[in-house]
Specification:
Blueprint (H helix, E strand, L loop, with lengths): L3 H30 L10 H30 L11 H13 L5 H17 L8 H22 L3 H6 L2
Helix pairs in contact: 1-2, 1-5, 2-3, 3-5
Length: 160
């Protein structure tokens, strides 16, 4: 196996980082859209618990992404410590390792999430946007993890 620490870090980014950053953002936007005093409010106790959970998810996701940047680069860098940016940096570094361009993908991620954050309270169907972003990022990370692991013994046994 190429680099066990890198595979483990990507596994954590894939399972915790993506969910923490994207899920936390989606939960923050949803809570703010239904904050007490808005047109369709939630109870105050729920808004406080949900917003606290969202902040915890964002913090955990950002920490995991920071370690992902470190493993992908092989060293610490300033952008690893900037929440949200480190998520995009992981995406860029994964795309580079896969030999693909990350510019369009990261631009699309920013546009889709910004559209969601600014318009979710008006267009509820935009609730699918964070799920699509998370799914796309998870697929790329899974692809890189599979490449780093190499073929399994089952695949080698089936080869002619």
């Amino acid at each position: 196996m190429a680099n066990l620490d890198l595979v483990r870090a990507l596994g954590r980014v894939w399972s915790v980082g993506v969910v923490g950053v994207i899920g936390g953002l989606a939960l923050v936007v949803s809570v703010l859209a239904h904050w007490p005093g808005t047109a369709h409010p939630t109870p105050e106790w729920f808004a406080l618990i949900a917003s606290s959970t969202a902040v915890a998810m964002l913090a955990l996701g950002s920490v995991v992404c920071a370690f992902g940047v470190r493993e992908l680069r092989g060293r610490w860098s300033i952008d690893a410590f900037v929440p949200g940016i480190n998520f995009l940096v992981v995406s860029t570094l994964v795309a580079q390792r896969l030999g693909r361009s990350s510019y369009v993908r990261n631009l699309a991620t920013v546009i889709v999430l910004t559209s969601f954050a600014t318009s979710f309270h008006v267009d509820v169907w935009l609730g699918f946007a964070p799920m699509l972003v998370a799914f796309g990022h998870s697929l790329w990370m899974r692809t890189l993890v599979d490449q780093l692991k190499g073929p399994s013994t089952i695949d080698q046994a089936r080869a002619p």
